[in-house]
Structures are given as C-alpha cells and as structure tokens.
Design brief:
The complex is a heterodimer of chains A (257) and B (280). Chain A has 257 residues and is mainly alpha-helical. In chain A, 49% of the residues lie in helices and 11% in strands. Chain A has 11 helices and 5 strands; from the N terminus they run αααααααββαββαααβ. Chain A is elongated and about 80 Å long. The model of chain A has no long low-confidence stretch (mean pLDDT 93). With 280 residues, chain B is an alpha/beta fold. Chain B has one domain: TIM Barrel. Chain B is built from 9 helices and 12 strands. In chain B, the strands form 3 sheets. An 8-stranded parallel β-barrel of chain B has the order 1-2-3-4-7-8-9-12, surrounded by 4 helices. Chain B has a two-stranded antiparallel ribbon with strand order 5-6. Chain B has a two-stranded antiparallel sheet with strand order 10-11. In chain B, helix 5 packs parallel to helix 7. Chain B starts with 7 loop residues before the first strand and ends with a helix. The chains are: A mainly alpha (257), B alpha/beta (280).
Chain lengths: 257, 280
C-alpha cells in the first residue's frame, strides 16, 4: 500500500506533468481506465485555473482571443502553479510572466495591460482607509517638511506604461463600443486607480505627479520624493501637484519625525 | 441554526450580492465560500457583512486542503478564523478531500484513499482545525471520479469513523452521494444508512452533468445546472432518515439569475415541509 504522502505527490505530479512517476497503478480501472479518470482531474485543474485568470484578466483574453489565452494560462500554470488554497492569488505573477513571454515582440504592451488589470483586482479587495485631511498639514512645522512622509491609500494603485493602456483597457470593456484602431505610439500613460465607496476612479496624471506618488508609495521622504519628481519634470510644481493628489483622494495620512 | 427552523438557502455568489441586498429574497439563509471573503476589506466583504445583518450565513471552505500531508496552512487558518469571528456563521464546513502537496495547490477537491492511515491523518487534522477555531466543523462528502486500489473501507464507513474520532459533524451532499453511487456502483441508500444520523447537520443539493468516457457514463459534479430528479428523490429519502435539516442549493458554473436559485430553494422548502408533516 502506498504511503499517503507518496500517493499525493505522485497524483499532483501527474496533474502538473512535472514527474513521470505515475499514480495510475494505484487507481482502479473498472470500466473506465485509470488514465481517463485522472484526466478528469487534470482537465478540472486546467479549466479552473484558466477560468480564474479569465475573470481577473478579461481584457487580455479579449485582446488575444480565448484559444491563445487558454494556451497562455496553461504555460503559466506550468511555470507558476498555485501556492494558495485561495485562488484569488494565482494571477499575481501573470503580468510578469507575460512580460517575459512577450519581451521584444510587438505584443509587449499586453504585459502592461495585464499589470493594469491586476492592479484593478488588488484595489477591489484592498482595505478602506481615511483619506488625508488637508487641514492636518497646517499643524506641521515648516522645518519638518523635508522629512514628511505621505502614504498612499490602500485601495489605490499606480501603473505607468509607454503605451496608451487606459484607452486599450476602456475600449475592451464588455460594454464598450467597437473602437477605432488604437495607435500604440500615443502613450505614455501615468495612471492612478482607486476604489472608493462610490466606485472606481481611473485618472491620468502628469509624469511628475506620478513620480512623486511612486516615491511616496515607496516610503520616501518628501525631500527625496521632490528630487525624484524634479528629475522627471524640471518644471515640477509641488504645490499644484499636492492639490491634485489631495483632489484625487489618493493620499492617506502623513508622518514626520 | 436550530433543527426546528430548518430552511432552504442558496449559495452566495458575488454576482447576486446587489440584488439580494436590494430585494431581500425570501430564502432561509445563505452560504458563502470562505475564501471569497478572506480579503481584509473590499466591496464583496462589505456586502457579505450587510447580507449577514439580514440572513443567517454559513461559511463553506474549499481551500483548506484538510487531507493533505503538508502541514496545515497557518495563513489560511488565520484568515478563516478572522472571518468566522466577524461573520459568526451558523456552520463552518470543509471537505473530506485534499488539494495540495509540497506547497503546490491544485485548487480542487481530490479524493483520499479510504485507509487506516488516511483516517488517522484526517481525524487529527479536523481536530486541529476545530481546536484552532474553537468550534465544531462540518465535513462534506465529495464527488469522486476514481477509487484507489488500496481503499480498505467504503466512503460511508470512513466518514462514520471520522465523526467518531474527530467529533466533527457532517454536511451531507446528496448530489455527491448520488454521483458516487452511479460512478462507483453502490446503492445510494446504503450510504445514507451507513453514516451516523445524529452527526448530519446540513444538506447540500446541486446539479451534475453526465459525460462519456471509454464508452461509459460518468457523472461530474459541475454545479452548473438544476438538481436532477433522482437527486430530489434521494433528498426526500435523506430527510426521512435525518429529519428536516437546513438545506442549501449550490450553483457555481454558468450561474443563472437569482430567481432560478430561489425556485430551486422553494422546491427544497416544499420537500422539507412534507418531511416535517410526515414526521409530525
């Protein structure tokens, strides 16, 4: 009798085809072969995995077509099998996988669209948090400003791309009208995604604002974040950028010490 | 949920959240897949808590991989415990199955070999989860498409021994009993009479499909269609053995309008009422 652990290892290897060691000898072939029986589970695995990614990356599926999408998901499964009993995590490495697969091809923009779709998924389940009350900034002494750290609210993601990914995403929503051809050279896009109680906000922001927010998200001080923003845009106007960011409701709280 | 108020409920799916909250359909309760609400926040989680204010909720897990020989996934258990504390569900249930090994998840309900070793392992795991959550867990029988040569006892004997050794309750999936009876050639009533009546606390009903393999029929638990006539009949037989128990309609793939699920739940309600009348 096979030990339970070995049986499970061989069964999983058979489903993932990572090991020739076979579980088939341990399975009854009454009427239907052991092979055909195990195939049911392999098909379930493939179908469940593809379905999950289909729900998380509907625009990618629409762009590449259902057949190629399924091929992509199976290649992805072989490289990145699930590491959680909660299927909501399986899509996390998919944008990076697409980037590797499509690097230096005319389809490399798909990886950026996938990053946008995953950011959207993350926003859906992120924590709610209060947005920054601008009044609190008045209580901060001027000399503390260089060391000020702004946070980005949890249900907010920053995505940028050399391609016009927001237009691509919008044109491929299920309720979208059939779009004109989108010129891939009409990027770049610097995008802020945010879930609010009222729904999703998708905003294009200036490159300097995006750089500032990216630095805030990385936990950098205002001084460092400003350097980064000025590095991107020599005309960067912090006051105006801060007003825009507060207007978008992107900022969480601030700390200084 | 007290047995005297046994009602029919519907599996809660995110596509129906908004309609449920706006219309408050006349169903007895809802059952949520625990993993769908593990996220700390978000729209779906908030809606679940709103629905919780109007209806009893059961939490049904699909990803704990109870029968796996890997250590129990601590992160998963912690997420489940957090959710249980917030939702205060009427039931917490999982499956007699495994779904992961060496840290890789197949995200499916895979059958265990019904051996002494598997029983000892599964019992210890169920006890561990019950201790961790501080409450009893219901274990559900699964549909299976294969049997292992090393099996020592039939499924119902394994379940009975599991109840005895772990103190768990049973979630009886009548569709899975029927599917397995057809797939593996046993009498579904033998199954019903082979499990301890006092342990069964909840019933699941779902639709399955029939496919052909090697020229033979095999039934697949797809949760994609109406409960079959044979399963409705077996449900009535189950109620006459176990009494009127909270019953849940499950539908996952090709999810229809909420009203279709309500109609299935209504049908279960009328069978529950007949069973109560017959017992009175």
């Amino acid at each position: 009798m096979p030990p339970l652990r070995e049986l499970q290892q061989r069964f999983a290897s058979r489903l993932l085809q990572t090991d020739p060691a076979s579980v088939l000898d341990w399975i009854c072939s009454d009427g239907i072969s052991a092979l055909a029986r195990v195939e049911i589970y392999r098909n379930n695995l493939h179908a469940g995995f593809s379905k999950t990614l289909e729900l998380e990356f509907p625009v990618i599926r629409r762009l590449v077509g259902p057949d190629y999408f399924r091929q992509l998901t199976l290649a992805f499964l072989a490289r990145h099998p699930s590491r959680s009993g909660d299927l909501h995590h399986v899509g996390a490495p998919f944008p990076g996988f697409l980037q590797q697969q499509l690097a230096n091809t005319e389809y490399s923009y798909l990886a950026d669209v996938a990053r946008f779709e995953w950011a959207y998924q993350e926003c859906l389940v992120a924590e709610d948090a209060e947005c920054l009350n601008p009044q609190t900034l008045r209580d901060i002494p001027m000399d503390a400003y260089p060391n000020l750290r702004f946070t980005i609210r949890p249900a907010c993601r920053l995505v940028d791309s050399p391609f016009p990914i927001l237009r691509i995403w919008q044109a491929n929503q299920s309720d979208a009208e059939v779009p004109d051809l989108i010129d891939l050279t009409t990027g770049p896009d610097h995008l802020v995604l945010m879930r609010t109680p009222a729904g999703f906000n998708l905003s294009r922001v200036p490159a300097g604002d995006f750089q500032l927010l990216t630095a805030f998200a990385a936990g950098q001080t205002l001084e460092r974040a400003l350097e980064a923003a000025l590095g991107r845009d020599a005309q960067f106007d912090f006051g105006a950028a801060l007003r825009r960011c507060i207007g978008l409701g992107v900022l969480g709280y601030t700390t200084f010490n | 949920m007290p047995k005297r108020a046994a009602l029919a409920g519907i599996g809660l799916r995110a596509q129906h959240h908004t309609e449920i909250l706006s219309r408050l359909p006349p169903v007895g309760w809802f059952e949520a897949h625990s993993e769908n609400y593990f996220a700390a926040s978000g729209t779906h989680r908030a809606q679940l808590l709103q629905i919780r204010r109007q209806y009893p909720i059961g939490l049904h897990g699909v990803g704990l991989s109870l029968g796996s020989t890997d250590p129990l996934n601590r992160e998963h258990l912690l997420a489940l415990r957090r959710l249980v504390r917030i939702v205060e569900p009427v039931f917490v249930s999982e499956h007699l199955s495994w779904g992961s090994i060496d840290g890789t998840y197949l995200n499916d309900l895979l059958p265990l070999p019904y051996t002494e070793e598997a029983l000892g392992h599964m019992s210890a795991r169920v006890r561990e989860v019950q201790d961790f959550l501080g409450r009893q867990v219901l274990i559900e029988n699964i549909s299976s498409y294969l049997r292992y040569r090393c099996a020592e006892v039939p499924e119902w004997e394994f379940l009975s021994a599991l109840v005895h050794e772990s103190g768990c309750g049973l979630l009886l999936d009548v569709n899975n009993v029927f599917v397995n009876a057809m797939n593996h050639g046993f009498d579904a009533h033998t199954f019903l009479h082979g499990i301890p009546a006092s342990a069964v606390q909840e019933i699941h009903l779902a639709g399955h499909t029939v496919m052909q393999l090697d020229g033979r029929d095999i039934r697949i638990d797809t949760h994609s269609t109406h409960v079959s006539p044979e399963v409705w009949r077996l449900y009535a037989a189950a109620l006459s053995r176990f009494g009127a128990l909270p019953t849940l309609i499950e539908w996952d793939a090709e999810l229809p309008e909420l009203s279709v699920l309500e109609a299935e739940a209504e049908r279960a309600t009328s069978i529950l009422e007949s069973s109560r009348a017959a017992a009175a």
